[in-house]
Fold:
Amino acid sequence: MPIVSLIERLGAFVIDGVSSMGDFIIFLAAALFYALQPPYKVRLLIRQMRSIGAESFFLVGLIGLFTGMVLGLQGYNTLSRFGSEGALGTVVALVLVRELGPVLAALMVAARAGSAMAAELGSMQATEQIDALSVMAINPVQYLVTPRVLAGIISFPLLTALFDVIGIWGGWAVGVGLMGAPNGPFFNGIAQNMSGHDIATGIYKALVFGLVVMWVCCYKGYHAERMATGVSRATTEAVVLSSVLILVWDYFLTSVLL
Amino acid sequence: MSQNSDSDGAAIVVRELRRRFGRQQVLDGVNLDCPRGQITTIVGPSGCGKTVLLKHLNLLLRPDSGTIVIDGVEVTKLGWREKNKIREKFGMLFQAGALFDSMTVFDNVAFPLVELTTISREEIRARVEETLEAVGLRGMEDKYPSELSGGMQKRAALARAMIRRPKILMLDEPTTGLDPTRTHQIHELVRKTQQQFELTAVMVSHDVPAVFEFSDRIAFMHRGKMALNGTVAEVMASKNEEFTRFMQGRTSGIDEPPAAAVAR
Structure:
């Protein structure tokens, strides 16, 4: 009965998909619900902000610097063809603040902190440490996931702001310092053309990316299969899925916030 | 308190417990009584559902049907707050110890007190040191779990399970991966701890017949059911065919369900 088995398989596939989607959403709902329930573990939140936020500062700053520098170079090269080198500051700043800052910062943190998080939670699952928490009457979602998600939501906008500022200085250093674009219009253009809405767009994106990356990475780690390959697969899936979701959400957020 | 108000004085009473994973009926009507102040050891071929049963007793899994009464409370339908109340009554020793590998032995053992009580730091320190003394790990406070041998990890995990002075202790294959000498030591330690604190203990073990010496009662599990359940002498004297075969190492069980399915 090949047709019956085909239908059976299709049904199983759909049911699996829907139920794991449901699991995925309930997981976030639980993490946010327990954020409102005592006990509040500020200590855990601060520790996670250190590992997600503070320890990513150098990497994000470095990527920001080079992104800004290349924007300065490309921007100057392109704009000089139209004789509008004066607009360099505006171009660099808008591209960074609206688009590249939140996206690249989020991708870097997903690769750095998100993967570590998925691996950590995965191996805790594999060695029954998460069960041990449950049995000790400590809610593992509240203890492990909630602080990470909250730390992501707090840290991502800060990292994005850092990325933007360093990037603009990088663009200035190359565009103005190296290529000889005019200094005054560089900053004047930014001041005149950058609106509060541009900055808010970038911050909204960073907030959403922070939530999405931590949600995906915690979920994948928490639900890793209990073996070594399960942990490595969870880590890979966490990074790949959060990177894809960053770019997908970026498109939709841009279209809504434009 | 030899006999309690419960009819048979049992701390844990399991009736007709059923649980299915996919197409596999892992628990198929389990009945079990664990009397107060005794060690009940569950043995059986691997894949018979021992570990799954224990995960129901410690409320990690919910049965499809049947009841579990712990200390007079029916626990299978409780919400998370009530569950956590019940869990305060018991300590659990996991197969591989399940120590938090990011924390020192001291922090591991102190963890339940730090997270769940308002006891002062000095008192926690005193309690932890006393408990580590009892399991023979004094002086190991600042080591990380990865720096300990397998036997020491089990001792530290036992200390953590005992730190809140539970009334019930659950042990999932506490001697897995240990040599016969260490196995004997852990069994003795469990026995000593159980007697010292008058614990009700439920142990899943594959160490037959070594574990019998340290148990009060044996439950033999086969194909999702309790084939035998009685005192060590009763069980040893039984003529149950499957049990005899199991003791001679000739048994065949159904395969374990995939670990991922058991996990949740």
